[in-house]
Q: What sequence folds into this?
Protein backbone atom coordinates (compact mmCIF):
# COMPACT_ATOMS: atom_id res chain seq x y z
CA UNK A 1 0.00 0.00 0.00
CA UNK A 2 2.91 2.35 0.73
CA UNK A 3 3.99 2.50 -2.94
CA UNK A 4 0.46 2.55 -4.30
CA UNK A 5 -0.72 5.59 -2.33
CA UNK A 6 1.47 8.16 -4.16
CA UNK A 7 0.46 6.67 -7.51
CA UNK A 8 -3.23 6.74 -6.59
CA UNK A 9 -2.97 10.32 -5.33
CA UNK A 10 -1.19 11.32 -8.52
CA UNK A 11 -3.92 9.80 -10.68
CA UNK A 12 -6.58 11.53 -8.60
CA UNK A 13 -4.84 14.88 -9.04
CA UNK A 14 -4.69 14.37 -12.82
CA UNK A 15 -8.38 13.40 -12.94
CA UNK A 16 -9.40 16.47 -10.94
CA UNK A 17 -7.29 18.77 -13.13
CA UNK A 18 -8.81 17.29 -16.28
CA UNK A 19 -12.35 17.65 -14.95
CA UNK A 20 -11.81 21.26 -13.92
CA UNK A 21 -10.13 22.19 -17.19
CA UNK A 22 -12.69 20.57 -19.47
CA UNK A 23 -15.77 22.62 -18.60
CA UNK A 24 -16.65 26.07 -19.87
CA UNK A 25 -18.47 27.26 -16.79
CA UNK A 26 -15.33 28.76 -15.31
CA UNK A 27 -12.58 30.46 -17.27
CA UNK A 28 -12.29 30.51 -21.04
CA UNK A 29 -13.05 27.69 -23.44
CA UNK A 30 -10.55 26.28 -25.91
CA UNK A 31 -10.94 27.18 -29.58
CA UNK A 32 -13.18 24.62 -31.27
CA UNK A 33 -14.84 23.59 -28.01
CA UNK A 34 -18.56 22.84 -28.09
CA UNK A 35 -20.97 24.70 -25.83
CA UNK A 36 -24.64 23.87 -25.40
CA UNK A 37 -27.81 25.93 -25.29
CA UNK A 38 -30.78 24.18 -23.69
CA UNK A 39 -34.05 25.04 -25.41
CA UNK A 40 -37.69 24.53 -24.41
CA UNK A 41 -39.77 22.54 -26.91
CA UNK A 42 -41.85 25.44 -28.31
CA UNK A 43 -38.68 27.40 -29.16
CA UNK A 44 -36.57 24.58 -30.49
CA UNK A 45 -37.37 24.65 -34.20
CA UNK A 46 -36.64 28.38 -34.52
CA UNK A 47 -33.53 28.18 -32.34
CA UNK A 48 -32.09 25.31 -34.37
CA UNK A 49 -32.84 27.10 -37.62
CA UNK A 50 -31.02 30.22 -36.40
CA UNK A 51 -28.09 28.14 -35.20
CA UNK A 52 -27.92 26.34 -38.54
CA UNK A 53 -27.91 29.65 -40.42
CA UNK A 54 -24.90 30.66 -38.29
CA UNK A 55 -23.10 27.49 -39.31
CA UNK A 56 -23.39 26.03 -35.81
CA UNK A 57 -20.66 28.36 -34.58
CA UNK A 58 -20.15 31.55 -32.64
CA UNK A 59 -16.65 32.91 -32.89
CA UNK A 60 -14.31 29.95 -32.53
CA UNK A 61 -16.83 27.88 -30.53
CA UNK A 62 -19.15 25.22 -31.86
CA UNK A 63 -22.67 25.60 -30.51
CA UNK A 64 -25.22 22.86 -30.02
CA UNK A 65 -28.93 23.32 -29.30
CA UNK A 66 -30.35 20.72 -26.94
CA UNK A 67 -34.11 20.46 -27.34
CA UNK A 68 -35.75 19.59 -24.05
CA UNK A 69 -38.75 17.30 -23.54
CA UNK A 70 -42.12 19.01 -23.43
CA UNK A 71 -43.34 20.19 -20.04
CA UNK A 72 -47.00 20.18 -21.08
CA UNK A 73 -49.08 17.22 -20.00
CA UNK A 74 -52.82 17.09 -20.52
CA UNK A 75 -53.05 20.87 -20.84
CA UNK A 76 -51.16 21.44 -17.57
CA UNK A 77 -47.55 22.12 -16.70
CA UNK A 78 -45.66 19.00 -15.65
CA UNK A 79 -43.56 20.43 -12.81
CA UNK A 80 -41.48 17.28 -12.48
CA UNK A 81 -40.43 17.53 -16.13
CA UNK A 82 -39.86 21.28 -15.79
CA UNK A 83 -37.49 20.65 -12.88
CA UNK A 84 -35.77 17.77 -14.64
CA UNK A 85 -35.14 19.93 -17.72
CA UNK A 86 -33.69 22.76 -15.64
CA UNK A 87 -31.46 20.42 -13.64
CA UNK A 88 -30.22 18.74 -16.82
CA UNK A 89 -28.98 22.09 -18.11
CA UNK A 90 -27.37 23.08 -14.82
CA UNK A 91 -25.52 19.78 -14.50
CA UNK A 92 -23.86 20.17 -17.91
CA UNK A 93 -20.55 22.00 -17.56
CA UNK A 94 -20.70 22.98 -21.25
CA UNK A 95 -24.09 24.71 -21.01
CA UNK A 96 -24.15 28.46 -21.57
CA UNK A 97 -27.87 29.29 -21.67
CA UNK A 98 -31.38 28.03 -21.02
CA UNK A 99 -34.08 29.34 -23.34
CA UNK A 100 -37.52 29.03 -21.77
CA UNK A 101 -40.84 29.70 -23.46
CA UNK A 102 -43.27 32.11 -21.87
CA UNK A 103 -45.87 30.46 -19.71
CA UNK A 104 -46.60 29.14 -16.26
CA UNK A 105 -43.67 26.70 -16.18
CA UNK A 106 -41.12 29.48 -16.59
CA UNK A 107 -41.36 30.60 -12.97
CA UNK A 108 -40.37 27.09 -11.85
CA UNK A 109 -37.32 26.67 -14.09
CA UNK A 110 -35.88 30.15 -13.50
CA UNK A 111 -34.68 29.75 -9.89
CA UNK A 112 -33.11 26.36 -10.63
CA UNK A 113 -31.22 27.64 -13.65
CA UNK A 114 -30.15 30.96 -12.18
CA UNK A 115 -28.91 29.34 -8.94
CA UNK A 116 -26.29 27.60 -11.10
CA UNK A 117 -25.18 30.96 -12.60
CA UNK A 118 -26.49 29.90 -15.98
CA UNK A 119 -28.16 32.42 -18.29
CA UNK A 120 -31.95 32.02 -18.30
CA UNK A 121 -34.07 33.75 -20.90
CA UNK A 122 -37.86 33.67 -21.11
CA UNK A 123 -38.94 34.38 -24.67
CA UNK A 124 -41.52 33.74 -27.35
CA UNK A 125 -38.91 33.70 -30.15
CA UNK A 126 -36.33 30.96 -30.47
CA UNK A 127 -34.77 32.88 -33.35
CA UNK A 128 -34.21 36.08 -31.39
CA UNK A 129 -33.02 34.26 -28.28
CA UNK A 130 -30.49 32.11 -30.16
CA UNK A 131 -29.29 35.17 -32.06
CA UNK A 132 -28.62 36.93 -28.73
CA UNK A 133 -26.73 33.91 -27.35
CA UNK A 134 -24.60 33.60 -30.50
CA UNK A 135 -23.77 37.31 -30.40
CA UNK A 136 -22.73 37.09 -26.75
CA UNK A 137 -20.53 34.09 -27.47
CA UNK A 138 -18.93 35.80 -30.48
CA UNK A 139 -18.08 38.83 -28.38
CA UNK A 140 -16.88 36.83 -25.35
CA UNK A 141 -13.20 36.95 -26.26
CA UNK A 142 -11.17 35.11 -23.66
CA UNK A 143 -13.77 35.31 -20.91
CA UNK A 144 -15.91 32.39 -19.84
CA UNK A 145 -18.61 31.64 -22.43
CA UNK A 146 -21.12 30.97 -19.64
CA UNK A 147 -20.33 34.27 -17.91
CA UNK A 148 -20.37 36.20 -21.20
CA UNK A 149 -23.85 34.95 -22.10
CA UNK A 150 -25.23 35.45 -18.60
CA UNK A 151 -23.92 39.01 -18.41
CA UNK A 152 -25.25 39.95 -21.86
CA UNK A 153 -28.76 38.54 -21.41
A:
Amino acid sequence: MGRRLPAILGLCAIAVAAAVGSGCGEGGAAAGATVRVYVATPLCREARRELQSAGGKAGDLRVSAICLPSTESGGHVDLAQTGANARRATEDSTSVAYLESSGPGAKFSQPIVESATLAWLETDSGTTAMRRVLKALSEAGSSSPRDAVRESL
About this structure: Confidence is low (pLDDT under 50) at residues 4-27. Strands lie at 34-39, 57-58, 61-67, 72-73, 76-77, 95-101, 119-123. The two ends are 53 Å apart (CA to CA).
